[in-house]
Amino acid sequence: MSSPVNFRVSERDVYISIDAGTAPSEVKAEQLQKAWQASELSAAKLLDPQMLTQTATKYAQHHSKDSNSSIPFQVIIAEIFDADLNLLVSDDDMKVTASAIVGYGGKALTQEAIIAKLKEKKITSGIQRKAIDALVEHTSEAPPGAELSVTVAKGKHPINGSNAKFKPLADDARKRVLRPQLREDGTADMRDLGAEVTVDSNQPLLQKIPPSKGRPGFTVFGQELEAQDGEDRDFKPGEGTRISETDANMIVADRTGMPSFNDNGVQVDDVMQLNNVDVSTGHVKFKGSVIVSGNISEGMKVTCSGDITVGGYVDSAELYADGNITVRKGCIGRLLNSGETAEYDEDADDWIPDVSTKLVAGGSVWCAYAQYSYLDAKNGVHTDKQLTHCHVITQGPLAIGGEGRNARGKLIGGTIETCDHIYCGQLGAPAGTKTRIYWSLPPVDPQSLEHLKNMRGLLAKTLARVKTVQQGLDKCATLEDGPKKLEYQKKLKGELRKLKARITTTRISIDSVLEAFENHPVLRTMVSKEVFPGILYLFKEKSLRIKEHRNGTMFLLQDKQLRVDSLL
């Protein structure tokens, strides 16, 4: 028996049709609902969630008024919607997000339709085929109204080429001091720095990796984004080295010695080896590096252009090296002229010890311990155990017994002048020994100084040109009126506007560089165990005194202010 209820489509409207003469009892809401769900059009969107209940009510009213009608009862109950697709392009034209909403009984999206809409928006590059397939599958299988957003097109950012790089092919003898050897238990032996770093003639030392080309990118609209090629730089073979005859991108050793690297350059220093330095050898002055397997005795001087390595002690001697200084045991000195005048009061705030042992290095200084010694090292001072009553000057870190929270060494008395971090386990002594730390700001980057100089030079030239142009305008005012005068004035006024804009930009650049000079990184003294009274921190006119015993503590120079915090 056929059902008195049928559904049909006209364009996008879905009609329900009930045969004439059908009793209202046969088309109640429950029966209409079952018929709708069984219909092939049930995916269409009802005009109202209660549409079928409303239809049953309307039909009952219609039947009561005109039960003899031979015309079927019809009413629109739903609409058919195709799947919808919206495209959103990012502000930088590098990504397109597509949002697809499953239709209600209508057509699903197809690959062809999606690609056509992309082309309509002139989106031609970086199209993601898998994302398009996901949208097609979603609108075919997901329930009506379900939404899915995916990236259907991606631009490609340009990749700038890499600058020329320089790869060391041998260890740097000047950095060897920072690489202590490991014991069997895994701990570092600060006294054992391994074998001396030496190279043989013709040994490859430094390889140049040429710059690479930049890879251009593109937007989703196909617009090309330019990329910069890497910058090239030349080799700088130093003394004792040369460019290889077989490889123009390789520097090789030209003699046996100790290598030291400097970014794009390398040199090989000759090495002088001595058992001891004493009255039998006299003072040592050598162009290269010096290795002393034993001690350097009282009153002796060693000066060299490379590194100085001492296997034993330095006792009231003076060492001067352009590279690093390494003393595997200790530096022992004494106060000079102590007690003769009030200037040698070790408890005075401004006391600086005048001592008999002096180490001055263009690189780093490393020793097991030092007492009553002057240590001047550009790149930092490292000791294994302690510094006692020393005068230290360095632009690098001062590390006693390690770095960071692992530092375990002692810093007692003396005067420290630095613009970098300090690490130790104990600062000061139970007796309240005065320990002074002078903090200063790190030196200004030479490149920034050169940039400032160039900006000031440009400003001076621009101001001079403004003066010349203004004189030209003044002279122009005395000319007779005419086309040439107007043209000349227009040209000069245009140039004057450009010059004034350049002056403004240049002054902003100068102010920016000067402001950067005033900023500085946070400097820290990290004391991992104990701090005793008698510590004095000084920065310009500011001072910070520690009068009480403290556990692990962090001292800070931050925003030109001295601070103290607990080390948690």
UniProtKB/TrEMBL annotation:
Coiled coil ranges: none
Domain Flagellar Assembly Protein A N-terminal region: 86-264
InterPro entries on file: FapA, FapA_b_solenoid, FapA_N
PANTHER family: POLYMERASE-RELATED, RNA-BINDING PROTEIN KHPB N-TERMINAL DOMAIN-CONTAINING PROTEIN
Full protein name: DUF342 domain-containing protein
Organism: Idiomarina ramblicola
